[in-house]
Amino acid sequence: MKHLAPIVLVLLCLGISCSDFNKKSKLKFSISFTKEMSDQAQDGRLLLMLANNDKSEPRFQIGAGLKAQLIFGIDVEGMMPGQEISIDAENAFGFPIRSLANIPPGEYFVQALVNRYETFNLKNGKTVKLPPDQGEGQHWNTKPGNFYSAPQKISIDPSKSETIKISMDKKIDALPVPADSKYVKHIKIQSSLLTEFWGRPTFVGAHVLLPEGFDEHPEAHYPLMIYHGHFPTDFGGFSTEPPPADMDTTDYSDRFGIYGYNKFQKQEAYNFYKQWSGKNFPRFLVIEIQHANPYYDDSYAVNSANLGPYGDAIMKELVPEIEKQFRGIGEGWARFTYGGSTGGWEALAVQMFYPDDFNGCFAACPDPIDFRAYTLVDIYKDKNAYWYDSDFKKLPRPALRNYLGQITSTIEESNHYELALGTKSRSGEQWDIWEAVYSPQGEDGYPKRIFDKVTGEIDKSVAEYWKENYDLRYILERDWKTLGPKLEGKIHIYCGDMDNYYLNNAVYLMENFLKTTKTPFYKGEVDYGDRAEHCWNGDHENPNYVSRLRYNTMYLPKILKRIQASAPKGADVKSWRY
């Protein structure tokens, strides 16, 4: 049996189960890129995609859900123009079918793409190869500069010996830079802190929503609201123009089960503008931060061993520059932060890690804020992230559900999808960015795995590092004696009790601790939405598809009340109330 272990390990690393071992396949895809794309050698993740329909290009049909089409990936280094690289049953990791040998015979639309990596020489001497953001928010299928092929329809039979050649002769175009307007400005600065960490010029930026009357009231200085969330191409949910009256409303939202949601969103954006510019509306600055990086569409707004000091870059470099340019008050009592999902975790984290710099956070449906409920995994007690502990039964842990509890993906499936997209935490997806932010850096310069990406086995030494540095509930409980007095009245958390990603479980654990706090009592709020799914933000009046569009007005009454109660004597609470 000992002699079989290396063989099994190799099969697992290739994404081939033992049941596939005897299923031979000589099917190969030979992929190259043309000299017109580049005359330089390329590193990256070479992806082969197959779809059984032509609803859109295969690259836009890849995912982890029930509608997932097929993807297979391998790492490439030094790939030269015209060089043919083989993807076959022995070298590619696939999802949702692990091996090319198991593809059902039939007709497919086939496409290839290479997610190009660049070499980063880090401050600590490590060298890593990663896909830099190109202004698209770290999405491999739309990343400017990536090479790809046009889809072609072919017949495939894995039982036959065949080599299918694909030439990548197209390159994704650069994206337009958003233009300034009366209300929305854009700022981008080079961060000296991040430049030092990454060993190359590195930038952070923001979209800034200016208050009505900004130019007409040069004497006014404004409170600052940081709306945390995923990468924004421009300031979202704000428009000075209503949707066209004849705008098509036949589009259907699977998530919300309604037609015409595109028009509804545009109408909400216009309604926000009308409210924003109306009389008696509080005047303040709202910013959405751009901090995409080589691992994800944002940095989680904290300092990290693998991503660098993004927390300090935002708070010590970007925010002061914004407040200087746009007349922010520039004091902690006049700063608030809010957001949902990733933004919810960020709102709570920055309030905790920079407790004097904010006067309140509103964290909606936050990513796991207690790692005893890392979705459905207790990283400290559980042995495996993919399977419930059992002597004889093998039951997978779910990853995604709807409000009825119907499951569409497991944790294993979600992570194997990511592994097809990239090794070493380089998929650009959710589980990998949690790992990149929370983990220590490995000897190879990449994040240490919290669990084996193939098998799900949890590394308890990495779990301990996560606990001490990023488990928000644990840190609050550990440090309440010093943190508590700085956070009194500032913590507000909201989550649906049927959150799609089971994030409510960690909120329950956080609430259990907060209710026990003394000297001081936390004096904040934790609230739940009955049968509410992901993105519930405390609105008991409207459904998710409405309230998720109203973050920038949702918490205003509470913010104003907090300012009135906590602003220091002599503070400017009037110049911005015109």
Name some characteristics of this structure.
disordered N terminus; eight-stranded antiparallel β-sheet; 24% helix; alpha+beta
Q: Could you explain the architecture of this structure?
A:
The chain has 578 residues and is of the alpha+beta class. Residues 1-22 have low confidence and may be disordered. Strands 2, 3, 5, 6, 7, 8, 9 and 11 form an eight-stranded antiparallel sheet that branches. The chain has an eight-stranded mixed sheet with strand order 12-13-17-14-20-21-24-25. Strands 4-1-10 form a three-stranded mixed sheet, with no helix packed on it. A hairpin with a 5-residue loop joins strand 6 (106-121) and strand 7 (127-130). The chain is built from 13 helices and 25 strands. It is globular, with a radius of gyration of 25 Å.
**Class by SSE composition:** alpha+beta
Oligomer: single chain
What is the C-alpha radius of gyration, as a whole number of Å? 25 Å
Separate helix tally: 13
Percent of residues in β-strands: 15-25%
What low-confidence regions span 5 or more consecutive residues with pLDDT below 50? Answer: 1-22
Distance between the termini: 79 Å
Mean pLDDT: 94
Count of DSSP strands = 25
Shape: globular
Main pleated sheet: 8 strands, antiparallel
Could you estimate the helical fraction of the residues in percent?
A: 10-25%
